[in-house]
Amino acid sequence: MSIREGLREEVLDANLALVRHGLVTLTWGNASGIDREAGLVAIKPSGVPYEEMGVADIVIVDLAGRVVDGERRPSTDVSTHLVLYRSFPEIGGVVHTHSTWATSWAQAGREIPIFGTTHADLCPGAVRIARHLSDDEVRGAYEENTGVVLQEAIGDRGINEVPCALVPGHGPFTWGKDAAQAVERAVTLEQVARMAALTLLVRPEAPPLPAVVVERHFTRKHGPGAYYGQPF
What we know:
Elements: H1 7-20, E1 30-35, E2 40-43, E3 59-62, E4 67-69, H2 78-87, E5 93-96, H3 100-108, H4 117-122, H5 135-139, H6 142-154, H7 158-161, E6 164-167, E7 171-176, H8 179-202, H9 211-219
Antiparallel strand pairs: 1-2, 1-5, 2-3, 3-4, 5-7, 6-7
């Protein structure tokens, strides 16, 4: 079965957007998107410089990770993306970066507390940090097991309340209805991470945002009562 027309272009655009927003360095990071009807995923090729990447370089894999179209190797993180796609049918795009501020929280092994409304617009709680992989998980199917700990971090709260998470010592992952939304969330997460770090620098004992404000900001952008933006 062939992949949906335009998906390769969407995934290329998502990857190049990571460069425009300053979220990636060298060849780090990756974005992918899925054609649910075909059961095929389009993803960045491994190790190809962004400035040299074209539509033909985007690799197509099935949900088992087999390359079905493309001359390149897929991103080394493809197995992580695939766990998320297999686990959550609502996910249409996944992004991984090593962006400075979010990665700093991941390297510190800390969740990102919810201090302000920018964070509440993204999610209604702290940005979760996944558990550490065991030695056996690292020595075994490392990338797939990275997806497993992200799956666990999402848990029963679902992808709308948990649109992103940090992998300890590694970096942030975001997801959304498509690759473009996953990029938008990666951009937002980086700013949230930066502001949280600066908040603690200014006031180490800063309190979290009151729950009533968190709920109001999250629900005005998400869910059946959302009224942010235009109705078309």
